[in-house]
């Protein structure tokens, strides 16, 4: 866009950037080829009339919204397929990246009901299906000749998988499973696309054979006729209703009334059921949960992208908006010049970058561990599960708070639906609950930490993410010396986590000695355990962010390296200040140390200030995906807000009929 059309304050911010924005962008998106493909695809879709509505979707009825979302979802799939096939690349993974990333969510604002097909149904087939089953189901699934979802959560049970009530009872006579929902609380509840979109489903149910329960297993079930789309016999299905956000996703409920499926429909890559009803256990029960771990890795990545999006909106708006004086004899300043505003904005930029770096790190770990699994090595699976659980919990919780902070940083205009904070908040806050409620996930991490703590006490080898426990145990009689460098903060936060873990473990043991069962003792210590897992995760985030930034700085320009280090420092200082109470408990930090840390944080804010717009520009999110008049590239906030106001259906006529029906008679009557 020519500079002449850009708000002068916003252009001035771009002119003062100290690093090459394109260099940042190339790192952020993963190189020149990925950037070109990203830009080509965005242009290809952004210019398509299929994705431009004269009436914004927030003015549609619930039914109209779903129908419009389906129209757009099928259109975007066809167009993305054509886009890649025209370029000789028909890899179905492209569809998953589009349907689940900022591009898909930016064009289909209230969530894509087909997204779950590639995000969970296809991965479930890959993760749970035998080679023969994959050969049967995957080709049609990848071509969308059948559409599926993943049904685990029930009306009465969510994260606690062992409590799921849906049953699959094996009938040896017919070699079939009989699926039943024995209670109302056993109805599947929440799967995306389930209500009216998909016709198949991977169902997690309690397997019964030969009179015994063999735990949760995955089954593929046809829900609707492929021709008429009517529900199959015994299938009770519908939509759960309106939600805080993501109302295009078509979340549904599902009940089974003696639904029969053949034995081959139990996905048997891991556990198996023989024709005579004999159950063959998997090498590890944790293999059953591979799909969830994959999704949690993706959630951390997507959380970083959502934060980048809202940070872009809030930072650009804060450069255009002028409010109040700093010096009374000078004009009103840009809101971003207020240090309090910088403190609202810049930590979210730092979080988005650190979360992205950590998601890259986690993705490498996931691929390494899954490769080891294929070779029968399960050693690091618990460690991956533990770190994925707490990262999902902490990043989504922090992102939800950050979106709300950034919305409020935009004042009254941030409250407008068209500002597009509410859409992102709907996506991010939903992630705090789906694929594992955050508190439950923290407790799962804590269970792993208790186990490795006791291993460390015995001198047994530990995985990379918990190596710091060895150092703590060797020096536990001495308070950790505070050092206010980023590596020093990492060690201090690790000391906090280890100290909390030691106390939590002691308190569990004390309660057991007092007569409580192990489970009761864990429950009574659960506040400490959840806090321990969070502390472990925050130490990992600061460490991972720092290490990944240092690696990056070896291959980028000095100017970009300087900015990235400042971003990493801001993240570390902010995490340390948020953990002051714990640092006082477990390290030698003093009041003067805290004052210096506060000064360092403020200096980092001021150092980022000249580069804030260049950083968010570097995220390379086009206006069509930002979907906000507050964050548009040209900075013409007020003109765009007025234009959005004209789209209200109430502005299509000068006098609404309610005046003649109700207001006029009311005003002329005597109360």
From TrEMBL:
One of its GO terms (biological process) is fatty acid beta-oxidation using acyl-CoA oxidase. Belongs to the acyl-CoA oxidase family. Pathway: Lipid metabolism; peroxisomal fatty acid beta-oxidation. Residues 150-259 form the Acyl-CoA oxidase/dehydrogenase middle domain. Its cofactor is FAD. It holds the Pfam family ACOX_C_alpha1. InterPro entries: ACOX_C_alpha1 (IPR055060), Acyl-CoA_ox_N (IPR029320), Acyl-CoA_Oxase/DH_mid-dom (IPR006091), Acyl-CoA_Oxase/DH_mid-dom_sf (IPR046373), Acyl-CoA_oxidase (IPR012258), Acyl-CoA_oxidase_C (IPR002655), AcylCo_DH-like_C (IPR036250), AcylCoA_DH/ox_N_sf (IPR037069). Residues 488-667 form the Acyl-CoA oxidase C-terminal domain. GO terms for molecular function: acyl-CoA oxidase activity; FAD binding; fatty acid binding; flavin adenine dinucleotide binding. The keyword Lipid metabolism applies. This is Acyl-coenzyme A oxidase. PANTHER family: ELECTRON TRANSPORT OXIDOREDUCTASE, PEROXISOMAL ACYL-COENZYME A OXIDASE 1. Its main location: other. Residues 21-146 form the Acyl-coenzyme A oxidase N-terminal domain. GO terms for cellular component: peroxisome. Keywords: FAD, Fatty acid metabolism, Flavoprotein, Lipid metabolism, Oxidoreductase, Peroxisome. It comes from the Eukaryota. The keyword Ion transport does not apply. It is found in: Peroxisome. Residues 289-450 form the Acyl-CoA oxidase C-alpha1 domain.
